[in-house]
Design brief:
Distance between the termini: 18 Å
Helix content: under 10%
Shape: elongated
Number of domains: 1
Length: 118
C-alpha cells in the first residue's frame, strides 16, 4: 500500500497492489486453458474491503467491487491488481505533517471514498 499526497491538493490517493505470483496459490493448473469457468482458481469479480482489526466479514466494509470476464489463475500466469482510491475533502481541509510515515501526510476533515477508476 502506498499513500500519495501533494501539498495543496484537496485529495489523497491510496494505491493498493495485490500480486499473485506464478506459483501462488498451491494446487493450480499448469496452463490457463480450462473450459470450466466455475472451477477452482477461476474468478470474475474482486473487491477491496476496509480493515477493522479482524477478518470478520460483518464489520469490514466493501469499498470497491469490479465484475469482469472470468480469468483462470494458473502456473503460467502472474496476476497483479492495482487499485487507486482517491479520498477527497468535502469541507474545510487542514493539512499537517506526519512523523510516522515519510510517504504520507495526516489529513483532518471530512473525507469520502472516491472512484477507483475502473
Amino acid at each position: 500500500m502506498e499513500v500519495r499526497h501533494t501539498a495543496g491538493n484537496k485529495y489523497t490517493d491510496i494505491v493498493v497492489t495485490c500480486t499473485l505470483d506464478y506459483g501462488e496459490p498451491a494446487g493450480q493448473a499448469a496452463f490457463d486453458n480450462t473450459t470450466n469457468f466455475n472451477g477452482d482458481y477461476v474468478f470474475d469479480e474482486l473487491g477491496l474491503k476496509s480493515w477493522e482489526g479482524t477478518e470478520n466479514g460483518s464489520t469490514n466494509k466493501l469499498l470497491t467491487h469490479v465484475i469482469f470476464h472470468p480469468v483462470q489463475k494458473s502456473l503460467n500466469r502472474l496476476i497483479q491488481i492495482d487499485y487507486t482510491l482517491r479520498i477527497q475533502s468535502l469541507t474545510t481541509f487542514t493539512e499537517t505533517s506526519s512523523t510516522a510515515l515519510s510517504t504520507s501526510n495526516t489529513v483532518s476533515g471530512t473525507t469520502s471514498g472516491g472512484n477507483t477508476g475502473y
